Amino acid sequence: MAGRLEGKVAIITGAASGIGLGAVELFAGEGARVIAADIQDEKGARLQERFEGRVRYVRCDVTREDEIAAMTAAAASEFGGLDILFNNAGISDRMLTVEEITAEGWDWIFSILVRGPMLGIKHAAPLMRERGGGSIINTSSVAGLQAGFGPIAYSSAKAAVIQMSRVAAAQLSPQKIRVNALCPGLIATSIFGASFGLPRETADKLAAMIAATGPKVQPIPKAGLPEDIAKAALFLASDDSEFVTGTYLLVDGGLTVGPRSAW
Ligand code: NAD
């Protein structure tokens, strides 16, 4: 049976670990050829080796427009065009309050989480137009929807990603390019570990934490895994979501439904 992304070319940023890595594995398994972009060269090289011929690692720091332009150009030169962009790269932020955050710290977070995806869209759109359309997925977060899930700059940036996706969806619709945001809940990756003081990425620790406090707040009391988000990204990337644009997909085990007392 043909894969759901057979014949498609995808770029995934932040591809060397966590959700991005899960997406590379899933997308390549579904028949896509993938430009895996990150700043972790060793992991990237190993990924390219694992998927010889299907995945090409490209170093791309999403704060740099020249590297984003080179990343999108690589999709055309290596695989002949571009159909899917998964703007996934991200960093965690220390839990700074509005009184502690600096102007530089704010700009740094926004340069990675908002400006990076915006530049990705800007450079990807002309290539997608040549193919008659495409799908762009921008990673937001539950932190972009509700207070209490992240620091102020991170949360504000993730909210901006949702609105940027809506506006880009409206602007790019004549070119048959769909744009959506994806909002993960608590997912066992290194970002989550850093935010909550866990020494390294471990689904077991996150599962234990959710089991201890989670059933009160998360209706599906398991650790979210990178593949849970990769599967949602696959839906948005594939033609299965051909009638879906300008919205966000929340994948959080029910974390944001509200306190249990209100059920
Ligand atoms: P992760 O740390 O495992 O992966 C992030 C990847 O982004 C890393 O490979 C890192 O090298 C790369 N990266 C960082 N800065 C970069 C830059 N300037 N240019 C290019 N690549 C860069 O974390 P993850 O949880 O897989 O995060 C993926 C996305 O999901 C992020 O946007 C994050 O904010 C978002 N997210 C994560 C969670 C969670 O609980 N893990 C929840 C909501 C949203």
UniProtKB/TrEMBL annotation:
Keywords: Lipid metabolism, NAD, Oxidoreductase, Steroid metabolism. GO terms for molecular function: D-xylose 1-dehydrogenase (NAD+) activity. The keyword Lipid metabolism applies. Its EC number is 1.1.1.175. GO terms for biological process: steroid metabolic process. It is an enzyme of class 1 (oxidoreductase). NCBIfam families: PRK07231.1. Belongs to the short-chain dehydrogenases/reductases (SDR) family. PANTHER family: 3-OXOACYL-(ACYL-CARRIER-PROTEIN) REDUCTASE (AFU_ORTHOLOGUE AFUA_6G11210), NAD(P)-BINDING ROSSMANN-FOLD SUPERFAMILY PROTEIN. This is D-xylose 1-dehydrogenase.
